[in-house]
Amino acid sequence: MTEDLLSAATRLKVIGRAGIGLDNVDIPAATKRGIVVMNTPGGNVITTAEHAIAMMLSLTRNIPAGTATMKAGLWEKKNLQGHEVYNKVLGVVGFGKIGSIVADRARGLKMQVIIYDPYVTPEQIQKAGFDAVTLDELFARADYITIHVPKLKDTMGFINQDAFTKMKDGVMLINCARGGIVDEDALYAAITSGKVAGAALDVFAVEPPAKEHPLLTLDRVICTPHLGASTAEAQANVASAIAEQIIDHLQNGTIMNAVNVPSVTGELLTKLRPYLNLAEKIGSLQAQLNKGALKEVVIDYRGDFQGLDVNPVTMATLRALLSPEVKDDVNFINAGVIAKERGIKVTETAYSDSEEYLIMITVKVVTTEMSTTVAGTLFGKNDPRIVRINTFRLEMVPKGHLALIYNHDRPGSIGEIGTTLGIHQINIGKMQVGQDKEGERNIIFLCTDTPIPDPVYEELRQLKSVRTVIPLEF
Question: Which pTM does this prediction carry?
Fold first, then answer.
């Protein structure tokens, strides 16, 4: 569902996804045209989790090879000796809905389960009865590693050559999440070297993979054609759910499991939309600035919100904050529930007065590693602006490719940054500068026409006047 297709679909009111993933829907383009985008989170999580367990057991006991050799008229009993999963260590990467179910099922198999998820507090993992570990510790201890994280910029290719080097010899890898999370070239090298004893793959970087794909030539790789969600029960559940949601929306105006609008009437949505847009920008910025698992979110509303119920605005903030962690699983309906499940304390305060602007939304986020405060307002009726980041005051337009630079306030520092970008033919479209309260440090937002490549970011970080550089996308 591309922008070109949506621009031609002039009567389109709603897009329904029978499932979770929305990688093939241009959500900003749909939102711009007032098209509701719905999915059915939770409809196939059990099915996908069971598939991961089935793949692990099939790999361990050589079931595909045993079937193939018997059908070829052979009796390869000695050559197909397997292992027990009993008392083995299963490392689960990602403790969302699917990862938590896999962990529970593995516990039933009497496996030792360890969990890595930087977005879930260790307390929440321990409360569920599992051990929270670092990624390096998981690599070092796990006999099996199963992947259950969304496909994001930070997760693409993160199971790479360096990761395999840190893993235990003879480890087995299961990926029923998304293609591209595992570096396939590095996996091939790790299997052929003997470092990895085998892999079970339901997903590939390019689907379907080419017939000559190197991994398909290896006996120690078993694979399925993206069957994680493909059971009769799951397909019936999500098909019925999305049909009911669309009917309810078209007949009664009810919006359920929408990822781009809250469940409110059309009239109220028109009034709320500028505040929702501002809240999403603040939440998205906070998600990109913060590191560690979310512990607390404090949202402060100040000014004249026309007597509107701001709960949808709070949900918009939470959805933007949680999206990098759980991606398409979170929407305006379940954002609060997911936050509660993860042990995140959410607090709202509201005051009718605002000292500087007609309205202001301030969001303080506390994680296991840091605390950050971001405030935003509206210029005119609809234009969101970020006006505060911690102690820095500024007026930043949250749009496009941005670089956030903390630098020492001294002559020539901004010119130094501009020169570095100019050498690489990167044009600065807009720039906003703010100072902290003491006036000793600057914060610079650069909006560039094209994304800044990682090597150029490294050059910027080496400049003497630069303290920190953070890439941002809106």
Answer: 0.75
